[in-house]
Amino acid sequence: EIARDRGVVVAVGTVGMEIDRKLYYEKELDFRVSRSYGPGRYDTAYEQKGYDYPIGYVRWTETRNMEAFLELLACGQLQLRPLITHRFPVEEAHRAYELITRNETESLLGVVITYPERADEHLILSRLPARVTTLSPQTCSDLRIGVLGAGNFATSTLLPAIKKVPDATLVGICSATGVNSQGAADKFGFSYCTTDETAIVNDRNISTIVIATRHHLHARQTMAALQAGKHVFCEKPLCLKEKELSDIVRCFAAVPRQQIMVGFNRRFAAMAIRLKSFVEKIDQPLAMNYRVNAGYIPRDHWVNDPEQGGGRILGEVCHFVDFLIFLSGSVPVEVHAATLPNPGQYADENAIISLRFSNGSQATINYLANGDRSFSKERLEVFGGGAVAVLDDFRGLELVHDGHREVSRCRWRQDKGHAALWHAFSRALQKAGPSPIPFHEIVASTLATLRIKESIAFGGSVPMDTAAFINAATE
Fold first, then answer.
1. Is pLDDT above 70 for 134?
2. How far is Cα of residue 200 from the mean position of the Cα atoms in its chain?
3. Strand 287-293 to strand 208-211: parallel, antiparallel, or no bridges (unpaired)?
4. For residue 213, which phi and psi values (nearest 5 degrees)?
5. Exposure b/e, 449-461, CB count within 10 A at least 16 = b
6. Is the bond into 306 cis (omega within 30 degrees of 0)?
């Protein structure tokens, strides 16, 4: 009613959306809904990476809105004290919520939760008394674990697998937010939780550090853990850049008493072990075809972010490269890759990859995001020496040789080897034996995916030499 003709009515906050059409029609008014905080809200590039909008195009961004508000407070032009009716220290925050939700008589308007004014807040949230015994970093007789990262994969898959290891003691867990950290600590029985990763890395009660953070942090955290005298279990990928891989190789060479393990779980699955036993009897090069129905994920997902996730080639294809290395018993010496011509929707998610191995075996990985998720995710076919093996989504295994066919099915539970991997890693640490995955194979899998990215970017085949790469990094 107070707007002029062709004026703008802006809804700020959560309000009703009932609009009087006649009034809006007669004045030809424009109705808009304002996104909270202003332009930049929900924009990953703006909020997480700091890419600002030019002021000539966007005057009042999310940050500039807050800056202007804080400046008005500092200048005394905004007086909020008359609006505050109650204050509660953060330790009594529950009283504030009880007042708001249950109060029927007391007058209230602004309820403020106060925090300590000093900056030296204690970042560790203790659940149980700290352990008084200390563990030498070189001692392998007790698997005491500290975890970096408490995201969905860590809490749904990784930590349940670790809990099945009878010798594992969950000491500390770190997450970027205290809520996730304490939630995981309560659920899985860690002695303490924290938001400070150095507390985990420097804890002498921890012998092994599990890294389950976002991909761009893996290299730095792996090297920090190794340098602190810890064994390392790093979820894939080990790193996102060749320089990082070279630095990890150099760092690992300087700490020969520690072990490093990457979460390449497929080679530890029961059906994978049977498949390996079948093909290792073949004394000829293998032909392997691996089809992966990966499924689509949005372009703005953090995995597709080149800086945080590195893309799905580095983030997931490394799994399949490692499995093929395991089956062939050799490492790649040449890669070639190309993507389907639909980059606008899928980035590099539809890739046809060829690998040539040092023993003459060859493999193709068809990594596809343009299929239907209801179809099985993985199918691997292996041919060689008059034999054929087919592994279907880790639910079925078919072995054929000399006219004899052996079929195994697992209808109720898909086993991709997560638990078996941790049992194998635990045994290696207990006995101070070699890592279940040889280090040069870990390097080869990571280097191969980096070369795949290079092949996609520049076209053509790209050679690789794992031994030469390791030698160059340690010279």
1. no
2. 19
3. unpaired
4. -90, -175
5. bbbbbbbbeeeee
6. no
Query: For residue 467, which amino acid is it?
Result: A
* Structure tokens belonging to residue 361: 């075996």
pLDDT of residue 129: 47
Predicted local distance difference test score (pLDDT) of residue 475? 87
Please compute the mean of the pLDDT values over residues 281-296 and round it to a whole number: 95
Statement: residue 347 has pLDDT above 70: no
The Cα–Cα gap between 332 and 469 comes to 13
**8 A C-beta contact, residue 359 and residue 279:** no
- CA 389 – CA 132 distance, rounded (Å): 53
What whole-number distance in Å separates Cα of residue 445 and Cα of residue 263? Answer: 12
The pTM for the full model equals 0.81
3-state secondary structure of 470: helix
Report pLDDT digits (tens) over 28-60: 999 998 877 888 988 888 988 889 999 999 999
- Whole-angstrom CA distances from 73 to 36, 58, 83, 109, 250 are 20, 23, 14, 19, 52
With contact defined as beta carbons under 8 Å apart, do 312 and 406 qualify? no
Count CA atoms closer than 13 A to 178's CA, side-chain side: 7
DSSP states along 323-371? HHHHHHTS-EEEEEEEE-S-HHHHTT-SEEEEEEETTS-EEEEEEESSS
Question: What mean pLDDT is predicted for residues 58-75?
Answer: 93
Q: Compute CA 400 distance to the chain's CA centroid, rounded to the nearest angstrom.
A: 38
Helices assigned H by DSSP within 242-287: 242-253, 270-279
If you ran DSSP here, which 8-state letter would residue 28 be given? T
d(Cα 67, Cα 228) in Å, to the nearest integer? Answer: 41
> How many CA atoms lie within 13 Å of 219's alpha carbon, on the beta-carbon side?
19
Separation between Cα atoms, residue 70 and residue 94, nearest integer Å: 28
Residue 444 structure tokens? 């080869």
Q: How far apart are CA 331 and CA 464, in angstroms?
A: 9
| Choice among 137-141, 184-188, 400-404 with the minimum mean pLDDT | 137-141
